[in-house]
Amino acid sequence: MAARGASCLTVMRFLRCLIVLAILPAHAVALPVETARVLHVYPHDPSAFTEGLLIHDGRLYESTGYEGASFIREEDLRTGRVLRSVQLPPDLFGEGIVAVGDEILSVTWRNGVGFRWSLPDLRRLGRFQYPGEGWGMTYDGRRIILSDGTPVLRFLDPGDLHVVRRLTVTADGVPLRNINELEMMKGEVLANIWLTNEIARIDPATGKVIGWIDLTPLVRRVGARDVDAVLNGIAYDAANDRLYVTGKDWPLLFEIMLSSQISGARREAPPPDTTAPSPEAGIRRRA
Ligand SMILES: [Ca+2]
């Protein structure tokens, strides 16, 4: 009887193990973490509290936050010089921007107010309202995608801005909060996660995070001491397959290449970073 009891116990443990494996396959596989190679370093206004970043028709646009310091502007990539700028009403806290056709749309943090601006002259065309908070925005070619700090991304009709879809973002099966600045890149939604050094790669069909981009070396290189001066701002130049990132009040804007881009050999012999010391050198200096 004792032997039969032990055998039953073994079978039950085996079955329990199978059940656990069946329930938790997603949790058992770690999401890939990519690093990035810095190709170029450009100046960035250290007083720009970056909330939105994008490239449209070869022009770089940025939006900034804080009441009284919220601007939408076009900047020269190489020098950081402001080429054109408009300021939001001083009681509003600017957040994300998105380019759709010949317009830029902008949202605000907790004011529930957004604006339309003409391109490329940034003339104010109109104002709209929306429920909830506004954080980051991007465009998938059909819908505007809006983040609001929750795990839910709203997909908006660019015409009347009604919500056509809601997508809950999860990482390892867990809803992902603090989704901030957004950027579409090769069919994926890249998202800054507020207060982290990582960008999430989100599958817009499922909402699942399919990988992470760890930019800790860039954060260390900038060496910001303000706790609010976090990584935020992603711009993808699809025409030239170039990716740019920066942060709030950062003095630098980086052109980076992801390890997946390198392995994909999309570009031959990427140029070395000759404009600034390497991240490793920066770390040594501060040590
Ligand atoms: Ca962006």
Automatic annotation (TrEMBL):
Protein name per its UniProtKB record: Glutamine cyclotransferase
Top-rank taxon: Bacteria
Annotated segments matching region Disordered: 264-287
Record-linked SUPFAM superfamilies: YVTN repeat-like/Quinoprotein amine dehydrogenase (SSF50969)
Keyword terms of this UniProt record: Transferase
Single GO MF annotation: glutaminyl-peptide cyclotransferase activity
A Pfam family per the record: Glu_cyclase_2
Presence of keyword Chaperone: no
InterPro entries, sorted: QCT, Quino_amine_DH_bsu, WD40/YVTN_repeat-like_dom_sf
